[in-house]
Specification:
Strand order of the largest sheet of chain A: 2-10-9-4-5-6
Number of helices of chain A: 0
Largest sheet of chain A: 6 strands, mixed
Number of strands of chain B: 11
Helix content of chain B: under 10%
Shape of chain B: globular
Structural class of chain A: mainly beta
Strand content of chain B: over 45%
Radius of gyration of chain B: 13 Å
Structural class of chain B: mainly beta
Distance between the termini of chain A: 37 Å
Order of helices and strands of chain B: EEEEEEEEEEE
Oligomer: heterodimer
Helix content of chain A: under 10%
Radius of gyration of chain A: 13 Å
Number of strands of chain A: 10
Chain lengths: ~110, ~120
């Protein structure tokens, strides 16, 4: 099975900073990758699908890139409301594995 | 609009069984693959199982294979998860999710606690 590895596992940054989270698949998954945001005590929400397609209503400061095995989620200017745990997930085929998550905090 | 509502979560003893349901109040349930995803306390998201829109194909995580059964009734817009031989490590919030094919819509979750 393909493993999904995120880094870092936690991150502390200042408001206005550019933040990058990476996700690596152990085998190629083309662009079948989604990013989710889960705020504390809330249900996960999809931010990006197909590696780089921003979901409707998601702020444009979020962006995704990558294909194959290496993917990136970028927040161009961190805002206080972005405090959350972020997960990548593959969906080319089962098992639909998630990365272990990246907990993002404000410094 | 897809609106998912899970039910059936409870406290159950190790080795016991429990059935979960997820009702879709929208109008497109029968056209989408559906999944269960769980989250243990303080842990990350774990995909559990998926069923194709027609019910013809089912997939399971290794951690639940042989113990859990996913099914659906398209006439009732309802997804099910039958969980047998429950273990302490199955304790989690269980979410149902609509696949587009990523997990586009999520329910609020139902809590399963396995403890004696």
């Amino acid at each position: 099975d393909i493993q999904m590895t995120q880094s870092p596992s936690s991150l502390s940054a200042s408001v206005g900073d550019r933040v990058t989270i990476t996700c690596r698949a152990s085998q190629g998954i083309r662009n079948y990758l989604a990013w989710y945001q889960q705020k504390p005590g809330k249900v996960p929400k999809v931010l990006i699908n197909d590696a780089s397609t921003l979901q409707s209503g998601v702020p444009s400061r979020f962006s995704g890139s990558g294909s194959g095995t290496d993917f990136t989620l970028t927040i161009s200017s961190l805002q206080p409301e972005d405090v959350a745990t972020y997960y990548c997930q593959k969906y080319n085929n089962a098992p639909y594995t998630f990365g272990q998550g990246t907990k993002l905090e404000i410094k | 609009e897809v609106q998912l509502l899970e039910s059936g979560g409870d406290l159950v003893q190790p080795g016991g069984s429990l059935g979960l349901s997820c009702v879709d109040s929208g109008f497109t349930f029968r056209t989408y693959d559906m999944s269960w995803v769980r989250q243990a306390p303080g842990k990350g998201l774990e995909w559990v199982s998926t069923i194709r829109y027609s019910g013809s194909g089912t997939y399971y995580a290794d951690s639940v294979k042989g113990r859990f059964t996913i099914s659906r009734d398209n006439s009732k817009s309802t997804l099910y998860l039958q969980m047998n031989y429950l273990r302490a490590e199955d304790t989690a919030v269980y979410y149902c999710a609509t696949m587009l094919p990523y997990f586009a819509y999520w329910g609020r979750g139902t809590v399963v606690t396995v403890s004696s």
